[in-house]
């Protein structure tokens, strides 16, 4: 009787336990499906799984990641944060095989567990050991695949650290039932996550599209507004001021040719304008710049160009990145500014072309009365002293860039030279200065200004500047003669490949050879020096001796001293040179020929100090 009652009591307890498990399962099913947020679903699954598998002390859920083809930890209980770094290959260790095969694993002894984990990578083993509480050994493990239909989603794994056989077949059966429902909840949550992600992407793309459309509308609005100002001939200043009104930060346009600013209220850039132009003359892309001097200036500089021609810079003060609106205004405004500047440039060039043509016609007039009338049309009164300067820019750049450089140098000269009763203009890559004065007092002053301006230019730019100057008494109808002399002075500089300024009166005897091609002069030198024209060391010594002898005007004493040789040695060398050249330097024509050859070499080919180097 007692045994029967005990059996009935045991059955009653097992029934209560079964009801408890059923209630847990029902509660877990309801809870798991109460939300579609993946993280929340994972937490609920882990919470109820541990209530079902009561003897388990720790557990985790791994989900398959298609990108890495690995099982990734998504949630865990009973481990520290190191477990989150565990990434298991398909087929690796216990959980990798459970996922691969779709079969449960219940292992109830430590020996079998660690034998089954023998293929676990060293990295994963270290992670697992660090993640275990107090580095305990696993004594029971239960791993169940999580599948939705035929699709494997992940694996649920539970550890017991207290006793072997801590996890039972009952736990396995309950967990299998739980896992099937968990898979449904996870699948639904994943679908929800994907749908939400797609929805977020669509929403984001829609917002981006709206923003893009808004920017396009704004761009069109800005473009049309600024273009309208240009079409209405409101001028460069009006466009810059309107861009300033539209922008969130102050904008300044620095004009490369004029050297001024629009608007002019920002003064502290003026001291650094040359440096800014120097760095951006050959740049295309904008950049942020920090200028450190008496004051510190951070600014964004946008170069304005028309093809290869540098026109100026848009300068926005401040180091913070430009807003989308400010970028839009600059990008739309820059081409319109470029067109506006080139329109003004074209007007200037047309004016200078007319001035050039009028000046050329004036030069051709020989009748005094007509010449006097033509001079007054150019703004020049008839005085008796005339000065003409021709400045040319020369460099390995296109003609348009040279024209731009000529306008820049012209602006610099206008700041220095008083234009009363004078003419100053540029045409192509040349600048012409023409002035009539009462006397020669102003000649040195004007020449000094031109020299300093040419020096300033050549120190800063790779394009070479050179000038030919001519001055003299003037009578109506004789301007062309003075102009031709300035041209000859300029040509002489160009033939010598020299920079700087040359006055016609300083050309000397070279005036006779200005229009002789270098090849012809070179041929004369070869014929004159004959066998001395060689790179042999002995002949080089004789050639150098001859050059020094001529340079010292046939003074034996001065020549010997300069060559650091005895006078007798020099005498023998000169005699030998005369024999080689078949000349007699005491003969007037022979000496004149050699003297002229040395002069031409010095003038057109280089220095006298080492003549053999260039021969």
From TrEMBL:
SMART domains reported for this sequence: GAF
Transmembrane segments: none
Secretion signal span: none
InterPro entries hit by this protein: CdaR-like_regulators, GAF, GAF-like_dom_sf, PucR_C-HTH_dom, PucR_C-HTH_sf
Family matches, as SUPFAM superfamilies: GAF domain-like
PANTHER family named among the record's database cross-references: CARBOHYDRATE DIACID REGULATOR, DNA-BINDING TRANSCRIPTIONAL ACTIVATOR ADER
Protein name, as recorded: Polyketide synthase regulator
Organism: Peribacillus asahii
